[in-house]
Specification:
Blueprint (H helix, E strand, L loop, with lengths): L7 H12 L18 H9 L12 H17 L6 E5 L2 H15 L6 E5 L5 H9 L2 E5 L9 H7 L4 E7 L11 H11 L2 E5 L29 E6 L12 E5 L2 H5 L3 E2 L7 E2 L8 H39 L3 E2 L7 E5 L3 H10 L5 E2 L6 E4 L6 H17 L1
Parallel strand pairs: 2-3, 2-4, 4-5, 5-6
Antiparallel strand pairs: 1-7, 6-7, 8-9, 10-11, 11-13, 12-13
Helix pairs in contact: 2-9, 3-9, 4-5, 9-11
Bound molecules: pyridoxal-5'-phosphate.
Pyridoxal-5'-phosphate (PLP) binds next to helix 4.
Amino acid sequence: MNRDCMDEKAIESILNDLKSEDTPYERVLSSMCTYPHPIAVKACTQFIGTNLGDPGLFAGTAEIEREVVRMMGALFNNPDAHGYITTGGTESNIQAMHAIRNACKNTAPNIIVPESAHFSFDKLGDLLGLDVRKADLDSDLKVDLGSVESLINKDTVGIVGIAGTTEFGQIDPIRELSELAMSKGVFLHVDAAFGGFVIPFLPKAHGHVSEFEFDFAIPGVTSLASDPHKMGFSVIPSGGLLFRDHSYLSRLSVDTPYLTVTSQQTLTGTRSGASAAAAYAVFKYLGRAGYEKIVGRCMELTRELVARAREFNIKPLIDPVMNVVALDVPDADLARSELKKRGWIVSTTREPRALRLVVMPHLTRENMLMFTDDLGEVVKNG
Ligand code: PLP
């Protein structure tokens, strides 16, 4: 800390300079986050000083969080879901597995996750002392059910399905995983950190609702993670963790004798009510119709991007299921660095290695067209 104080203008000027070093989202095709909706920013500012870690002091904010959980429960087909607003998918996955581990008596517990699982599962394996066993993917880059089944043993406490994989945007066969989980008597956690605010709003290919099943409508699903700070248009940090009923959450309870409540089930102690308020505001403001419009536009751009890539003879590893695309280019790392020289931030997948693109709401059609032109040239010259 400097010894001398600075005046407001000087601080503002330094902050502005440093902010200008950040990459604006417009040319970013690697991130699953985007600009938050203005109404979320407004609510965030209003609730910035609130602490949901001590909810007795913030009765109104606590009610907002309960309403956000109710809204997410309704979206994911379980109005009775219990949970809380986390800092994101990582914390949600940690706490889901934490509850599952606590529910079981095994001394050397393991969980089965798809090879495509987010690296948060590596973190939580380490933290929770869980052996994280990785199941192979099939040719569609969904988890292979035979591989999952072969990894289950007497110490398996839970299995995980991904609804919207980070690298491929694929949806695992959650109904089949649910049948397997129920037949083996283990928990099933669905990581819909990204897909939770995409899948329910996908254009209706077959009838009235989205054709993909992934949530509590499937009986074996015991918990689900979905992040308002990704396609939910809320502020960072806001994640959502939902359990089928209260019994799971209570397994995370610790006594909090000197607070306004007697127990806490959350990972962090002090936690921002601004996250809940922002999610509340944007959910209420956009409603289903608003999200359908945003997701519909992202999907249109994704399809157009893939069609243009095909004109350059670049094919996707799978036809896009959501607004995440993995393109099969001869040298993905080289293409990534060449695109960076042209001002585009993209990423690569692990296995199979491909160029990974996320078509977030901040990508304009004009930029998508410029990007695909650059991509075509980069691949031709590579
Ligand atoms: N799960 C999935 C499927 C994700 O795609 C991500 C992040 O991209 C996470 C979990 C982790 O989310 P966070 O970075 O918000 O902790």
